[in-house]
Amino acid sequence: MQVSDLMTCDVLGIDASQTVRSAARQMAENEVGCLVVSDTGTLIGIVTDRDVVVRAVAAGVDLDKTLITEIMTRGVFSCLSDAPLWDAAQLMETHGVRRLVAIDRSGAVEGIISNNDLATVPEHELVQPAPHLASH
After folding, report:
1. Which of 15, 34, 83, 99 could form a disulfide with 87 if both were Cys (CB 3.0 to 4.6 A apart)?
2. Tally of structural domains, the chain
3. What is the pLDDT of residues 46-91, one digit of tens each?
4. Domain carrying residue 86
């Protein structure tokens, strides 16, 4: 299986100039847990419902004045949408992240794959196969 077989394709994005409240509204209206954040079309981060709660609500910031760039997660990890699932699982484990942005070979966002998605897959699909050794 490949990442594209499991990823969520309807990725929603938000511009970096938007506020935390607008991000929260967009998540609520679309029943999603994250938005990709872009600045002039370039992916710069991801904002999750957890970011909103922990970095904004719990911190007591003004949701109408605080930009999402102040609470978003920078340094988004990505994988190719045509990569095998075990590759995505390995990346998530290595970097301790719950989501990866799936991109095509030109770098365009195609989807998001989460650890919840991977939890639906048999374990053998998430382990890199051992190389086949030729016998003589």
Report:
1. 83
2. 1
3. 999 999 999 999 999 999 999 999 999 998 999 999 999 999 999 9
4. 3-122
Q: Which residue has the tokens 């594209």?
A: 4
> Quick check: 11 and 112 in contact, CB under 8 A?
yes
Torsional class of 107: left (φ above 0), alpha (ψ -120 to 50), beta (otherwise): left
Q: Is 37 helix (H, G, I), strand (E, B) or coil?
A: strand
Give the DSSP letter string of 54-89.
IIIITTT--TTTSBGGGTSEES--EEETTSBHHHHH
- 118 part of a folded domain: yes
129 — phi, psi (to 5°)? -65, 145
**pLDDT tens digit sequence for 112-136:** 999 999 999 888 778 877 666 555 5
In the predicted model, what is the mean pLDDT of residues 6-28? 96
